[in-house]
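Dear colleagues,

As part of the handover before I leave the project, I'm documenting each prediction I ran so the next person doesn't have to rerun anything. This entry is a single chain, and its sequence is reproduced below.
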Amino acid sequence: MSNDQERDLVARAARGDARAFRALIATHHSTAYAVVRAILGPRRFDDVDDVMQLVYLKTYQGLAGFRGESKFSTWLYQIARREALDVVSKRTLESTSIDDVVIPARASDLPDTTLGESDMKQWIERAMGELDESYRTAIELRYMAEKSYEEIADLMRLPVGTVKTYVHRGKLELKRIMSRPAWREHKGAVS
């Protein structure tokens, strides 16, 4: 979508055109979703849809005040980031129940020592949850939202080189996390 087309959609949506707003959201959903998901981490994936509803509500309510000094995608990214961080800060104050603590079994204790695809996804999500927020966000935008380094740099308001560093370091950190003895032990025969 060109900048002119996007500006037109923003102007129409600000005047109450629901179709224009839906088109904007459809265009930028993957970016906002990736940011919210990255910030909430795997323990809060149930909250992603709730936060996305808040993001879209705040976006719609704030359209009249959007001055166009930045791209719409950058503005939406900031709203998504702020809402997700707000949820995280509120939830951090809650205590964790002993019933919520998960102790992974050793591979030798599992009836089937090979992890299925859903199990592997869970372990990757858990490892992603251990990453620094900026690394996790850059990786989510790169691989989940399929954004270019330039687009991520624009969204995160960082130089392209910094984004590349975040993605690279995030991948190295994931590799380190996933190569821990406990990880390898539970991973079983999947290699």
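The first helix runs from residue 3 to 14. Confidence is low (pLDDT under 50) at residues 93-114.

All the best with the project,
I.
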